[in-house]
What we know:
Blueprint: H1 4-7, H2 9-17, H3 19-54, H4 60-93, H5 99-110, H6 125-163
Amino acid sequence: MQPAHLAVSPFMDSLVDWRSDWAWGLPLIVFTVVIHVCGLLIISDRVDRVHNAMAARYSDNVLFVMVIAVTTLLATGLHWFEAMIWATAFVRLGALNDDSTAVLYSLSAMTTYGHADLYLSRRWQLLGAMEALNGMLLFGLTTAVLFGIIQQARQVRSAKRRRG
């Protein structure tokens, strides 16, 4: 009969192997979330300014579509930049061999698409799952900002209708 501590040994061995993943993954998650929040604040500020400057020239519907389009474009660029941070880490750590493969893998992991037939080296596989977790957080933040912009546009439209 095996002692209880030996029964969990394979799991504990895996945890030891994952220390590097956690040591790299957690700071990458925090770093990209901070970048994302700062980027979304800048985007929101710019969108408000553009909206206020163009409100008299365009109908509410045209202005709304323009604001959503620009916000989506800028947020997509922000997600791309954050995926590049992860891709750079994958290449520097030796988890992937080249930049183009790392970019494809990173975008696939971040979006949780996961369909690209690419794999991190075995030692770094948990890091890929951590990027997927990061992507969910980042896309959730982006969704919240887009929802806020939609709500704001509806409030402006309702206020205009009440005024006449």
